[in-house]
Amino acid sequence: MGEIRNAERTRKNILKAASTEFFEKGYSGARIETIAANAGITKQLLYRYFKGKDELYREVFGHLFEGWGPDVFMMPANPVQIAEHRFKVNAEQLLGFLRFTVWEAIDPGPGSLMGEELRRKVLHSYIADMRDKQEMGLVPEQYDPAMLTLAISSLTIYPLIFGDVTKLITGKLPTDPDFQEEWKRLLRSLSERIFGGK
After folding, report:
1. How far apart are CA 196 and CA 138, in angstroms?
2. What is the four-CA torsion angle of 122, 127, 128, 133, rounded to 10 degrees?
3. 146 and 171 share a domain?
4. Lesser CB count within 10 Å: N end or C end of the chain?
5. pLDDT digits (tens, 9 = 90+) for 128-148
6. Could you tell me the residue range of the domain that residue 155 belongs to?
7. 149 with 184, same domain?
């Protein structure tokens, strides 16, 4: 029993070390030796758990979705609250995944876009939600739901991912609670203008 627990612990340590390595260096920059050292094991032992970097990369991506509750993908009924909600969820629950996607854009790694079908489904659910709100008269007809979804995604992701730029512009890191409160207020104000305060 203890041996099984140790194996599970070792596997979790490897995945944690691999996540850090991939988030900081991307696929090409990540080194198996560094992952093993940071997991507190030898490279040879790591290969007993994972065949290589490709498998480890895919496994890390698969674990990004663990622990996400339904609130991660739910949208508020009032469109004025959507951007603020998405920013909060991104900052509190999806930051690892968002960092992963930046590296993925720069350095695609093995094969096609990881989890492409799931990502498309989630993003299209946001568009469908915006379209439904438009049909209910909550979103002005002049706005394309897909373009609004892209704009909200940009406003709720960019300041978190490009923390250096955020700091250069505002003097604050995106993790600073004061910055986050100010940004949420701005998102709400812009949303009130776009959606007419509905």
Report:
1. 8
2. 130
3. yes
4. N
5. 999 999 999 999 999 999 999
6. 70-195
7. yes
Give yes or no for a contact between 118 and 66, defined as CB atoms under 8 angstroms apart.
no
CA–CA separation, 91 and 77 (whole Å): 21
| Cα 56 to Cα 184: distance, rounded to the nearest angstrom | 36
Mark 82-93 as b/e (b = at least 16 C-beta within 10 Å): bbbbbbbbbbee
d(CA 89, CA 84) in angstroms, rounded, equals: 9
pLDDT, tens digit, 9 for 90 and up, residues 27-64: 888 999 999 999 999 999 999 999 989 889 888 887 77
- Do 190 and 94 lie in one domain? The reply is yes
Half-sphere exposure of 162 (CA within 13 A, CB side): 11
The residues, any chain, with a CB within 8 Å of residue 184's CB and separated by 6 or more, are: 84, 87, 88
Residues in the chain: 198
| Statement to judge: residues 91 and 117 lie in one domain | yes
How far, CA to CA in Å, does 130 sit from each of 39, 167, 198? 43, 31, 13
What's the total number of domains in the chain?
2
Q: Extract the tokens encoding 195.
A: 């959606």
Do 125 and 180 lie in a common domain? Answer: yes
Please tell me the pTM assigned to this model: 0.80
Residue 144 φ/ψ region, left for φ over 0, alpha for ψ in the -120 to 50 degree band, beta for the rest: beta
